Amino acid sequence: MKMAVKPLDEVKDASKILAAIKYKSFAKAFFAVKKWTDPKPLGFDLELMPLTDLSNVHVGDMVHFDVSFMGKPFSCTQDTIQYMTATSNTFGGPDNFSLYSYLINGKAQFRMPSAGQWVVNVYVRQDVNPDGKLKELVGKCTTVWYAGTISFNVKP
């Protein structure tokens, strides 16, 4: 084993460590059997929900998403620019372009430019401090990263 996961309070001389990260990832893939039914939230810390029938998306269609963090709509603030990305190996060729949509009132949307498999992502960074929501992690890590992902296919 080359690496082991340990909380800061179990590391000798942890004062030399600049950052310790806890990573929480949530992923969903959507498809329909016979017909699309609107999915229900699963209660993830970072929840991405499609507001569009993802079983029948074609090039040029708009797809809409609802994003919540800790049960509340996740949005841009005056301090942060929150956004959702969309990527596909069929868009951008070797340059690997991505689409970006700002999260406003917990909503994001994209007009799909190419057919193929697409992945949308949202990342959230929360610093750990004694006065914050993550105070139980003080001494164990410095930052918590949340990742939410949805994959779906776009038809020609």
Structure description:
Helix content is 0%, strand content 42%. It is mainly beta and 156 residues long. The chain has a single domain (21-30, 43-155), classed as Immunoglobulin-like (Sandwich), CATH 2.60.40.10. Strands 1, 3, 6, 7, 9 and 10 form a six-stranded mixed sheet that branches. Strands 2, 4, 5 and 8 form a four-stranded antiparallel sheet that branches. Strand 4 (62-69) and strand 5 form a beta hairpin. The chain starts with 20 loop residues before the first strand and ends with a strand. The model has no long low-confidence stretch (mean pLDDT 91).
Going by CATH, the homologous superfamily would be: Immunoglobulins
Main pleated sheet: 6 strands, mixed
| CATH-defined topology | Immunoglobulin-like
Low-confidence stretches: none
**Rg result:** 18 Å
Strand-pairing-aware structural class: mainly beta
User: Level of helix content?
Assistant: under 10%
Q: Overall mean pLDDT score?
A: 91
Number of domains: 1
The shape, in one word, is: elongated
The DSSP helix count reads 0
Distance between the termini: 46 Å
Task: Please tell me the CATH architecture by its name.
Answer: Sandwich
